[in-house]
Amino acid sequence: MSGLNKYNYYCKGYTKKAISVLLAGAIAFGGAGTVLADSAPAGNTAVAASTPSAVRTGAFSDVNSGFWAEKHIYKLAAQEIIIGNNGKFRPGDPVTQQEAVLMALRFMKLDDQASGGTATALPTGFDVSNYYKPYVVLAFQRNVLDKTTEMAAENLKTSWGTRKATREWIAELLIRALGKTSDAQAVASEPSGFADDAKISIDKRGYINAAIDLGLTNGLSGNIFNPQGEVTRAQLATFFSRAEAHSAAVYNNTSSGIVTEVKEGKMTLYSGASNAVYSLNSGTAYFSSAAETAISLNNIQPYTKVTVIGKNGTASYVELNDPKPQVETIQGTFARLSVSSNKLWLKNADGYPEYAFDNATSFVDAGGSAIAASSISEDSIVAITRETFTGQNKILKVQVTSGVVNKTASGTLKSIDLTAKTITFTNASGTDETFKWADSALFSYQKAILVPSELKAGSAVNYKIVDNLIVSVEVTQAVERTVQGMLTDLNGSSVVYKKADGTRGVQLLAASTAIVIPGYAKPATSDLIADATYGDTVELTLNGSDQVTKIAVVGRKLEQLFGTSVVSYNFKTKLLTVMGSNNQARVYQLDENTKFINDFGNVPTLSNIASMLTENQKLNISALGQRTLSLEIVSKYEGTLASVNTSTRTLVLKTTDGRSLTLPYPPIVEMFGRTGLSITDVSVGSVVTGFLMPSQDVLTSLKVKTSQQLQLAYVDAANNKLGVKTSGGNIDIYTLAIPLTDETGQTIKLSDLKAGDYVNVSALGSSPLSIQSVKLTTGQVTAIDAAAGTLSVKDYTGAAQAFGTGGSVKIVRDNGTSTALGSLSLSERAEVRKDADGTTIVRILPVQTRYFSSYDAAAGRIVVKRDNVNDENYRFILSPNVYIHQGDTTLSVQSLKENDKIAVYLNNNVVVEIVKQ
């Protein structure tokens, strides 16, 4: 393969795999890593390779479900190629050369040929731990290791066995283990196509090229190979697992074949000569050859191709190789059947083709329900399913696809079409079947008659079909459904409502019932109107037990008057006369059940509010007919600032109920974080609340509703106080009575916040109403789509976070800002958050390239070489979770050596990432 073709091969592989690999956070040999045999415990090398019988697939406590190399670890552990230690696998540990040799021999099925004698010897200076010596000797004997290269004097300056295996060394080991040395020699002179090709050892280039040709490696992001990078156990396991496709070795307890049955916790596998039955349990792992992530047993259907690795009749690992069932279907017109000879005949223009069946053949109707073979009528259309993997073409199933259906069945209601008057059921065998319903069809649930629109998908049902028509559907276990009616009564345990047909409905309330009323931020049961004449029209959501889980108001007859003026109030009759908007008097009845609202300081009761109902007093009234539900003495106006007239010193306020009010300037204007304001400082369109004097004609103050994103200066959880930074300085906020939530609306504690965090502060005037924490995502920009307005960031846990900017983005750098998403680079590190107005803020982290000097553990900082004698910026505080790495290999700060070249990424002057170069 030429260097150009090899480069194109790399690019093609990267396009297909890079995204998932980057998400995993650990690209390794072969694009996603590899794993290895156990290393010997210190001081007792013979204990290290614990016997294979100790292996239990999936028992590694440090390999979590969803781990990027989980599939390969499961597979090789089941084959006893890799072995854990004390229930752990240690996937992130680096691999030594002697460990890699042992795994290669297990991979080749040669490890049992190693001599365990004490006389095993290697040349002086070639240091290998005692336990591994027989395996290393065998590797030389089997040409898995090259004696000339490995025993060269230059290669023996450090201990050979405990030396960390590099990526290029592992490439050679694997190609030799596969017996592909000649392939490597054939391409040894070709360039690899990687950007760091010059760093690849001359004697290793052919092996790397051979690994590329076999599709075993795509290198790392940035078109580099990193030949000297260390290989982890998880990476090596993945490497050898994928190499099995090119190996001639026959692995223990591994069989491939066709699944003929999955039933009652057992899987039957046909492998060419006979059937093998495997038990399945909670420890059985299921994967697909086409993906890295686990699948479920439900994904493995009968007659599909699989590989099973098992022991003592129990499957440890099952891999789906081909999801296409190995069967064929023959359709035709049924002629007749002979039960005595186990034969049936179809008919076509050329005659009557004959088909033999046996006792294992199933006969089913169009819905998949079992039927007697003798019940099939002549001229029915049937589908015969035959297997294609034994060479005998046995008939597996005969299904009647058309004919008159008469049956009673159970299943699940999948969907309903009210226009076509059809229902699709999923029957007990899992097959979907669709029927029209008869005009006289009966639908019911718990003896209650339903209309078709009340049937819901997902409900368990019994249904009866007569002459292909549905005659009855009984719901045996309901899912959520809805009913509508007028609310007439509501108590602590039930809801009473009038249906559209005038009949009475009663439903029990669930333990928790949600209330939804348009225009109400936090509606309660007391806000619902239950009345025989004027009750709310509601939609009730009923759970499977027919209890009300939600009451949503969809219509109400409530009459609301805003700013209406009092004409008179009769203390004796408690009748209130007001002037409506059409200049016509309206009369309302007040009583002790009327809700009174008064912000002027008095306790709102009928006795003390009656004296305030003087002529021209402005009120807000909610009423049902003449019955007054609530009465509010107008003390404020809420709405938006429509205009300001500096000549007349008046403003126009458009209220939430649609009125436009002209009012004099208020003496006080409040806005959070600002002082000394006048009305001209308030933008037209701002949401405001104007507070009135008791005379109701003059504003005492105008408070502007704001939502700002601010940074925390401090958090004092002990005193329920925090400080936010504003342009005018820090502002103290006492939070005891203020809701604190995260971005999802979940309640948080003050102690969950810390100085430097961003919060969205919603306030009315100078008074905060709520505080919401802002999610910060910090990491490397991994994808940019300027046209779609999206970007992705891989955070320092290795997880990818996607952001949709909606066209509103601000890129902040030390040298300025930009609104062009395309100005970002994939190599940059960034902190991303959403501003209070929804704008995506991307703050680019500054980076410095320095030379490492030392680590000060006590101070939690690193020291770098000074650029010059005047350089005072050479000490950097480390974040507690600082990410230190070289390529995809995670490093510890202690592994950094003096004069190592490093890139240091800073977030608010704290190091969050160090890249060893």
TrEMBL record:
The keyword Coiled coil does not apply. Pfam families: SLH. Keywords: Signal. Residues 1-37 form the signal peptide. The keyword Signal applies. Residues 56-118, 191-254 form the SLH domain. This is S-layer homology domain-containing protein.
